[in-house]
Amino acid sequence: MFNARTLLAAAVAVGAAAAGAAPAVADFGDKNPITVTVTGATPTGYPRTMVEGLNAIVREAYPNSAVSFKPNSPGGGVLAIANGEADFTATATGTEIKLANEGKAPFSAPLKGKFSFVMQLYDNQFVHFLMTKAWADENGIKSWDDIANKKPRMRLAINRPDNPQVSIGGPYAVMEAHGFTYEDIQKWGGSYVLGNSAIGLDAITDGKADVFMNARNLGDALVKDIAGKRALLWIDGDTAKMAKAASVFNNKADMVPKGTYAFMEKDYPTVRMSVFLLAGAHVSEEVVYKYVKAIAESEARVQAVGGSLKTSFATAKMATNPANLPYHPGALRYYKEKGLMK
């Protein structure tokens, strides 16, 4: 017969066994649909094409999923996922990550802990530092040091601060590494043409800008076309100073090879950036896992989207995280399962 003491002992043993057991892990191997809003890309241009291409792959992997696109800027995208207004942002770089975590402009308060790392999309975003030959010859400019020393009046085509990767994180940092600031340009009698790279190149073409600082793919067809109408030069620079500028936001200094454009008679230094997909802290492990899985297992489809994804995306590099942002649990689980991380 069981007495009270025996029953109590049995209950304690069962409880101890349950406490020692590993918690059950949810199985995300199903094809159940997910609901996702991806932001960070402008209404037109390659970033939107990229996001729509990625979303289409996810919808195919998980039929009946509601995977949508919400236009925004790179900085605005990080703010949106931190505030729960979107789930993913697809255009973040080390610049947005650092500024958002620290609450520095264009962010009004620290957002650390409100977003996390999902994947690297590509690592070949090169900032183009171009000037018209006419302006360079008139002012005796060949390099960044020449600009710092001669303080020429310039009409600068550059992106807005709410797209900090190609303003604060690229050009501003390079200027500061060479001893002057973005604000100094206006003090020297210059002015700005603010907008994306297409707006900036239009300004160069129309004679409304002398200098262009923004991101384009290397060997960009539009830059080549413009160079056939208006002679262009690449602003030369000191590699150590370029490396110093790049390191501020966990970017890389790199060289643009001779002949990338017909006007480049040698290799020139620049800032090379990686672009990441981030998720808000509110996004479930299942949603992130499934989005990552769909992309990771469709490498050729992702590359077929074109642009930077064609030349740089690789499943093996998805977990690359130079900004050292904490991984979202859903992404981390997938990468560990597939041996992409230890």
Describe this structure in words.
Helices cover 40% and strands 20% of the residues. It has 342 residues and is α/β, with parallel strands linked by helices. The chain folds into two domains: 35-123 and 275-337, D-Maltodextrin-Binding Protein, domain 2; 125-273, D-Maltodextrin-Binding Protein, domain 2 (3-Layer(aba) Sandwich), CATH 3.40.190.10. Strands 1, 2, 3, 4, 5, 6, 7, 8, 9 and 10 form a ten-stranded mixed β-sheet that branches. Helix 2 crosses helix 12 (285-296), helix 7 packs across helix 11 (239-247) and helix 12 (285-296) crosses helix 15. The longest helix is centred in the first third of the chain and has 17 residues, at 4-20. It is elongated.
Distance between the termini: 52 Å
The CATH topology assignment of the largest domain is D-Maltodextrin-Binding Protein, domain 2
Oligomer: single chain
Query: Which regions have little confidence, pLDDT < 50, spanning 5+ residues?
Result: 1-22
**What is the chain-wise order of helices and strands?**
HEHEHEHEHHEHHEHEHEHEEHHHH
Shape: elongated
Mean pLDDT level: 92
Structural class: alpha/beta
- State the name of the first-level CATH class of the largest domain: Alpha Beta
CATH level 4 superfamily of the largest domain: Periplasmic binding protein-like II
CATH architecture of the largest domain: 3-Layer(aba) Sandwich
Helix content: 40-55%
